[in-house]
Amino acid sequence: MDLQPILDGIADKIGPHLSEGRVADYIPALARVEREQFGMAVITCKGETAQTGAADTVFSIQSISKVFTLTMALGKIGNDLWERVGREPSGSAFNSIIQLEREHGIPRNPLINAGAIVVTDVILSNRADPGGRGSGEAGIDAIREILDFMRSTAHDETIAIDREVAESEAAHGFRNASLANFMKSFGNMENSVERALRVYFHQCAIAMSCKQLARAGLFLAADGRDPISGKRIVTPSRARRINAIMLTCGHYDASGDFAFKVGLPGKSGVGGGILCIVPDIAALAVWSPGLNKNGNSHAGTLALEMLARETGWSIF
Ligand code: DON
Predict the structure, then answer these.
(1) Does residue 253 line the site of ligand 1, with CB under 6 A?
(2) Ligand 1 binding pocket mutation candidate from 97, 203, 204, 287 (most atoms within 8 A of CB)
(3) Residues contacting residue 216 through CB under 8 Å, at least 6 positions apart
(4) What predicted TM-score, i.e. pTM, was given to this entire model?
(5) Domains, the chain, ordered by start
(6) Distance from residue 131's CA to the centre of ligand 1 (Å)
(7) If you write DSSP's letter for every residue of 130-162 in order, what string do you get?
(8) 204-226: buried (b, 16+ CB within 10 Å) or exposed (e) per residue?
(9) What is the pLDDT of residues 194-204, one digit of tens each?
């Protein structure tokens, strides 16, 4: 299949929709991003690539980082993770607190904010000590480990954290602080709330392009093994399970709608990015900063609908 004309066609058709969404404004540094931008990149398991628009422009990956921290935490403590976080869709907003009390501080899944903060807490408690090369400060070492993981899966050492975004979120992160404190009160946080949030805000502030993100997610399209380098990252069954969680939980209370319209595992971020996996075929990423009411990229979702229709890609 010749992907390039399909992507270029989507870029043409998406133009009128770029002004329809609203840029995330609860993180001031994100509110300054120009809304009318669009990029898309696809990389297949055979190594073919296609891209259109601003596919090389870096943006804040935000919640897309949760897929990678979930992968890391499962690698560290395996199925014990499921004692601290569930794997059911929440049916509520990404930063909702209401279920947490009823469910005794155990977040519904690792892709809502509360669940991702627990996952980050697991990484902090079980961080690697690379032969004493770490800084000795737990938070800095965990941030470094997460950044290194993104760089290694994307095969790109230039990937960096946007400190301004991390600080901007930290200065306004009252909701996440509430979620973390609430979980701490239920005994579901091992580290201090301040330290866990610091790491969490930095992982969300990693800046990547569509091209880098698609490359980083490719192992999830290939049974857990990077099909280009041959390096195994997770087992086939774990890759399938991460994809299952992306499908059922990756778009919060719009996960059902995304499965209905696009039919692929996907993870969104309030920076306007979406990572999507086509098992056995490709990984792709789309970016457009205008968000819909659920906090997912408006034009990005439309573009993925078009792509799924035109390629026939679907897990169903
Ligand atoms: O914690 C937050 O609110 C942000 N750092 C991430 C939220 C997010 O990306 C939700 N995604 N659509």
Answers:
(1) no
(2) 204
(3) 68, 150, 153, 154, 208, 275
(4) 0.97
(5) 3-62+208-311 (3.40.710.10), 63-206 (3.40.710.10)
(6) 33
(7) -TT-S-S-HHHHHHHHHHHHHHHHHT-TT-EE-
(8) bbbbbbbbbbbbbbbbbbbbbbb
(9) 999 999 999 99
